[in-house]
Amino acid sequence: MRVLALGDSVAATIAQGLPDIPGRRGVRISNGGTIGCGITTLSPYRYFGATERRARRCYAWQRTWRRQLRAHRPDVTLIVVGRWEVTDQQLRKRWVHIGDRSYDDYLRRRLRVAFGIASSTGSAVVFATTPYYHRGDRPDGGTWPEDQPRRVGAFNRLLRAFVASEARGASVVDLNRRTAGGAHHYVARVDGVLLRYDGVHFTPEAGRWLAPWLYPQLARAAGRT
After folding, report:
1. Rounded to the nearest 5 degrees, what angle is found at the Cα of 177, between the Cα atoms of 199 and 50?
2. How far apart are CA 107 and CA 28, in angstroms?
3. What is the tens place of the pLDDT at every residue in 159-178?
4. pTM score of the predicted model
5. What are phi and psi of 93, to 5 degrees?
6. Where are the domains of the chain?
Protein backbone atom coordinates (compact mmCIF):
# COMPACT_ATOMS: atom_id res chain seq x y z
CA MET A 1 0.00 0.00 0.00
CA ARG A 2 1.55 3.27 -1.14
CA VAL A 3 0.73 6.14 1.23
CA LEU A 4 1.49 9.80 0.54
CA ALA A 5 1.26 12.32 3.37
CA LEU A 6 0.41 15.85 2.25
CA GLY A 7 0.09 19.01 4.29
CA ASP A 8 2.28 21.12 6.53
CA SER A 9 5.24 20.30 8.77
CA VAL A 10 2.95 18.40 11.14
CA ALA A 11 2.18 16.05 8.25
CA ALA A 12 5.90 15.88 7.48
CA THR A 13 6.91 14.85 11.00
CA ILE A 14 4.19 12.23 11.17
CA ALA A 15 5.37 10.75 7.87
CA GLN A 16 8.99 10.80 9.02
CA GLY A 17 8.09 8.64 12.00
CA LEU A 18 5.72 6.20 10.29
CA PRO A 19 7.60 3.00 9.51
CA ASP A 20 7.71 1.33 6.11
CA ILE A 21 6.58 -2.30 6.26
CA PRO A 22 8.17 -4.52 3.62
CA GLY A 23 6.42 -7.27 1.69
CA ARG A 24 3.41 -7.71 -0.54
CA ARG A 25 1.04 -6.71 2.25
CA GLY A 26 3.34 -3.98 3.51
CA VAL A 27 3.19 -0.19 3.58
CA ARG A 28 5.39 2.38 1.87
CA ILE A 29 5.26 5.93 3.21
CA SER A 30 6.11 8.97 1.09
CA ASN A 31 6.52 12.35 2.76
CA GLY A 32 4.98 15.26 0.88
CA GLY A 33 4.67 17.66 3.81
CA THR A 34 5.81 21.25 3.28
CA ILE A 35 7.33 23.14 6.19
CA GLY A 36 5.36 26.26 7.07
CA CYS A 37 2.59 25.75 4.51
CA GLY A 38 -0.97 24.55 4.83
CA ILE A 39 -3.83 25.23 2.44
CA THR A 40 -4.31 28.87 3.42
CA THR A 41 -2.30 31.51 1.60
CA LEU A 42 -3.76 34.56 3.31
CA SER A 43 -1.16 37.08 4.41
CA PRO A 44 -0.21 38.58 6.78
CA TYR A 45 -0.95 36.26 9.66
CA ARG A 46 -0.15 36.21 13.37
CA TYR A 47 1.91 33.47 14.96
CA PHE A 48 3.38 33.27 18.44
CA GLY A 49 2.70 36.96 18.99
CA ALA A 50 4.31 38.21 15.78
CA THR A 51 2.80 39.39 12.51
CA GLU A 52 4.33 37.39 9.64
CA ARG A 53 4.18 37.25 5.87
CA ARG A 54 3.38 33.98 4.11
CA ALA A 55 6.45 32.26 2.65
CA ARG A 56 6.62 32.36 -1.14
CA ARG A 57 6.69 28.55 -1.41
CA CYS A 58 3.28 28.34 0.28
CA TYR A 59 1.56 29.97 -2.70
CA ALA A 60 2.63 26.98 -4.80
CA TRP A 61 1.09 24.33 -2.55
CA GLN A 62 -1.34 23.14 -5.22
CA ARG A 63 1.44 22.65 -7.76
CA THR A 64 3.57 20.96 -5.10
CA TRP A 65 0.79 18.52 -4.23
CA ARG A 66 0.21 17.64 -7.89
CA ARG A 67 3.92 17.01 -8.38
CA GLN A 68 4.02 14.74 -5.33
CA LEU A 69 1.00 12.78 -6.54
CA ARG A 70 2.50 12.26 -9.99
CA ALA A 71 5.81 11.17 -8.48
CA HIS A 72 4.47 8.69 -5.93
CA ARG A 73 1.14 7.47 -7.39
CA PRO A 74 -0.27 6.63 -3.95
CA ASP A 75 -3.06 4.21 -3.21
CA VAL A 76 -4.14 6.50 -0.38
CA THR A 77 -3.33 10.13 0.37
CA LEU A 78 -3.30 11.31 3.98
CA ILE A 79 -3.94 15.05 4.37
CA VAL A 80 -2.85 16.72 7.62
CA VAL A 81 -3.51 20.47 7.81
CA GLY A 82 -4.86 22.85 10.43
CA ARG A 83 -1.91 24.43 12.20
CA TRP A 84 -1.79 27.47 9.93
CA GLU A 85 -5.53 27.46 9.36
CA VAL A 86 -6.28 28.23 13.04
CA THR A 87 -4.09 31.36 13.16
CA ASP A 88 -5.32 34.94 12.92
CA GLN A 89 -4.95 36.16 9.34
CA GLN A 90 -6.10 38.93 7.08
CA LEU A 91 -8.92 38.43 4.60
CA ARG A 92 -9.85 41.47 2.56
CA LYS A 93 -7.89 43.73 4.93
CA ARG A 94 -9.75 42.43 7.99
CA TRP A 95 -8.30 40.19 10.70
CA VAL A 96 -10.25 36.93 10.86
CA HIS A 97 -9.96 33.47 12.35
CA ILE A 98 -11.82 30.18 12.42
CA GLY A 99 -15.47 30.80 13.29
CA ASP A 100 -15.72 33.95 11.20
CA ARG A 101 -18.22 33.17 8.42
CA SER A 102 -16.16 34.69 5.61
CA TYR A 103 -13.04 32.86 6.70
CA ASP A 104 -14.88 29.56 7.17
CA ASP A 105 -16.21 29.91 3.63
CA TYR A 106 -12.66 30.51 2.43
CA LEU A 107 -11.43 27.38 4.21
CA ARG A 108 -14.19 25.27 2.71
CA ARG A 109 -13.15 26.44 -0.74
CA ARG A 110 -9.57 25.52 0.03
CA LEU A 111 -10.56 22.09 1.32
CA ARG A 112 -12.53 21.58 -1.89
CA VAL A 113 -9.41 22.31 -3.92
CA ALA A 114 -7.28 20.06 -1.71
CA PHE A 115 -9.68 17.16 -2.12
CA GLY A 116 -9.90 17.66 -5.86
CA ILE A 117 -6.15 17.54 -6.23
CA ALA A 118 -5.63 14.61 -3.85
CA SER A 119 -8.27 12.50 -5.61
CA SER A 120 -7.23 13.46 -9.15
CA THR A 121 -4.95 10.44 -9.67
CA GLY A 122 -7.43 7.90 -8.33
CA SER A 123 -5.99 7.84 -4.82
CA ALA A 124 -8.26 7.29 -1.85
CA VAL A 125 -8.26 10.41 0.33
CA VAL A 126 -8.10 10.48 4.12
CA PHE A 127 -8.22 13.71 6.10
CA ALA A 128 -6.78 13.77 9.62
CA THR A 129 -8.32 15.96 12.28
CA THR A 130 -5.80 18.46 13.54
CA PRO A 131 -4.34 17.81 17.00
CA TYR A 132 -4.28 20.23 19.91
CA TYR A 133 -1.18 22.41 20.12
CA HIS A 134 0.88 24.21 22.71
CA ARG A 135 3.80 26.03 21.12
CA GLY A 136 4.47 27.93 24.36
CA ASP A 137 2.91 30.34 26.82
CA ARG A 138 2.43 34.04 26.26
CA PRO A 139 4.56 36.32 28.44
CA ASP A 140 1.55 36.78 30.75
CA GLY A 141 1.13 33.02 31.06
CA GLY A 142 -1.89 32.85 28.78
CA THR A 143 -2.43 30.83 25.61
CA TRP A 144 -1.68 32.14 22.15
CA PRO A 145 -4.81 32.28 19.96
CA GLU A 146 -3.58 29.56 17.57
CA ASP A 147 -3.10 27.19 20.52
CA GLN A 148 -6.60 27.59 21.93
CA PRO A 149 -8.42 24.23 22.00
CA ARG A 150 -11.67 25.85 20.89
CA ARG A 151 -10.06 26.92 17.62
CA VAL A 152 -8.83 23.40 16.97
CA GLY A 153 -12.30 22.08 17.77
CA ALA A 154 -13.91 24.57 15.38
CA PHE A 155 -11.55 23.61 12.57
CA ASN A 156 -12.19 19.91 13.08
CA ARG A 157 -15.95 20.41 13.03
CA LEU A 158 -15.62 22.35 9.78
CA LEU A 159 -13.40 19.61 8.34
CA ARG A 160 -15.81 16.83 9.27
CA ALA A 161 -18.79 18.74 7.88
CA PHE A 162 -16.93 19.34 4.63
CA VAL A 163 -16.00 15.67 4.20
CA ALA A 164 -19.54 14.57 5.00
CA SER A 165 -21.16 16.97 2.55
CA GLU A 166 -18.67 17.53 -0.26
CA ALA A 167 -15.83 15.00 -0.31
CA ARG A 168 -17.53 11.89 -1.65
CA GLY A 169 -15.47 8.81 -0.95
CA ALA A 170 -13.08 10.54 1.46
CA SER A 171 -12.81 9.60 5.11
CA VAL A 172 -11.55 11.10 8.35
CA VAL A 173 -9.12 9.70 10.91
CA ASP A 174 -9.37 11.29 14.34
CA LEU A 175 -5.76 12.21 15.00
CA ASN A 176 -6.95 14.80 17.51
CA ARG A 177 -8.69 12.30 19.73
CA ARG A 178 -5.91 9.73 19.42
CA THR A 179 -3.22 12.17 20.49
CA ALA A 180 -5.21 13.89 23.26
CA GLY A 181 -5.35 10.83 25.49
CA GLY A 182 -8.96 11.51 26.47
CA ALA A 183 -8.33 15.18 27.25
CA HIS A 184 -9.82 18.17 25.48
CA HIS A 185 -6.54 20.06 25.33
CA TYR A 186 -2.89 19.50 24.43
CA VAL A 187 -1.01 16.73 26.19
CA ALA A 188 2.65 15.93 25.54
CA ARG A 189 2.56 12.21 26.35
CA VAL A 190 0.08 9.40 25.78
CA ASP A 191 0.75 5.81 26.88
CA GLY A 192 4.14 6.97 28.09
CA VAL A 193 5.16 8.11 24.59
CA LEU A 194 6.41 11.67 24.01
CA LEU A 195 4.30 12.69 21.02
CA ARG A 196 5.45 16.23 20.27
CA TYR A 197 8.91 17.66 20.88
CA ASP A 198 7.88 21.34 20.70
CA GLY A 199 4.14 21.32 21.27
CA VAL A 200 3.44 21.11 17.54
CA HIS A 201 5.61 18.61 15.65
CA PHE A 202 5.59 14.86 16.18
CA THR A 203 8.51 12.79 17.40
CA PRO A 204 9.74 9.66 15.56
CA GLU A 205 8.42 7.63 18.49
CA ALA A 206 4.98 9.11 17.91
CA GLY A 207 4.98 7.88 14.32
CA ARG A 208 5.77 4.34 15.41
CA TRP A 209 3.09 4.57 18.10
CA LEU A 210 0.50 5.85 15.64
CA ALA A 211 1.17 3.24 12.94
CA PRO A 212 -0.81 0.26 14.39
CA TRP A 213 -3.80 2.55 14.83
CA LEU A 214 -3.47 4.44 11.54
CA TYR A 215 -2.50 1.76 9.02
CA PRO A 216 -5.70 -0.33 9.26
CA GLN A 217 -7.77 2.82 8.67
CA LEU A 218 -5.71 3.74 5.62
CA ALA A 219 -6.02 0.18 4.33
CA ARG A 220 -9.82 0.31 4.62
CA ALA A 221 -9.88 3.61 2.77
CA ALA A 222 -7.75 2.12 0.00
CA GLY A 223 -9.93 -1.01 -0.20
CA ARG A 224 -7.09 -3.20 1.04
CA THR A 225 -9.03 -5.11 3.69
Report:
1. 30
2. 30
3. 999 999 999 999 999 999 99
4. 0.97
5. 65, 20
6. 2-221
